[in-house]
Amino acid sequence: MEKAIAAIEDLVREAILDGYAVAGGMAAIFYVEPVLTYDLDVIVLLPTSTGVLVSLERIYRRLKEMGHIPDAEHVVIGGIPVQFLPAYNPLVEEAAHRCQVLPFGNTTVRVVSAEHLLAIMVQTGRPKDLARVELFLAEADFDRLKLMDILSRHGLLEKWGKFSRKEDS
Amino acid sequence: MSQIAGGTGFPQVIKESIEERRQKMARLPVEEKFRILLRMQRIAAEAARARGGTARQPWQVD
């Protein structure tokens, strides 16, 4: 994991990325019990000077130059398939900007906060996301006021309400 | 013991025990949880092989 983070940090230093934050199952592991995942999902903030496709192409090309192997939509770094996801909506962009810097081994990792992860899971709404919401509610330490603020600003209160009602029944 | 003998008590004991274990797991250091994830990937791959299916490749980390 440290190798993957070091490679991503290199991309930030080289201004190929404006920023990043780990999301998905690997981010969840920072807050709840381990969940089975096979990808390291990384939300990337791309430089605004170039288009998304050009920026992604630069990421994949540079990582290949560093010796990391592209594999379908992933790049395998230090044995871990890493998927780069451009911040695809305002919530995801905010999640990357307001991420937490957390220790991992001998390094630190930028990780989406528990509140933003919850909001993204509610927004995405796949069965596996909703199952993870349950895990977070049972196990994670998070700020409910902060979560409500995020849900409200991104128009997710109704979706959250439906989910909460299902949880209560 | 009375919880076990009490019919509906037994599932409650199991439920509480599972919840307690999950809380404990959630509070492990993230590095330990990462090692558990690697073990889960290997177990999932072995289980898939055993039933003749295919599974995602476990991470090959040092």
Describe this protein with a few key phrases:
heterodimer, A: 169 residues, alpha+beta, 5-stranded mixed beta sheet, two-stranded antiparallel ribbon, 8 helices, B: 62 residues, mainly alpha, 3 helices, flat
The computed structural class of chain B is: mainly alpha
- Give the averaged pLDDT of chain B, no decimals: 84
Give me the side-by-side strand order of the main sheet of chain A: 1-2-5-4-3
Classify the beta-strand content of chain B into a percent band: under 5%
End-to-end Cα distance of chain B: 46 Å
| Approximate strand percentage of chain A | 15-25%
Q: How would you spell out the order of helices and strands of chain B? A: HHH
From the N-terminal CA to the C-terminal CA of chain A, the straight-line distance is 40 Å
Rounded Rg of chain A: 16 Å
Sketch the major β-sheet of chain B. Answer: none
Overall form of chain B:
flat
**Rg of chain B (CA only):** 17 Å
The quaternary organization reads as heterodimer
Roughly what percent helix of chain B? 55-70%
Q: What is the average per-residue confidence, as pLDDT of chain A, rounded to a whole number?
A: 92
The poorly predicted ranges of chain B are none
**Which pair of protein chains has the largest interface, and what are the residue counts?**
A-B, 22 and 20 residues
Question: Any low-confidence stretches of chain A, pLDDT <50, length ≥5?
Answer: none
Helix and strand succession of chain A?
Answer: HEHEHEEEHEEHHHH
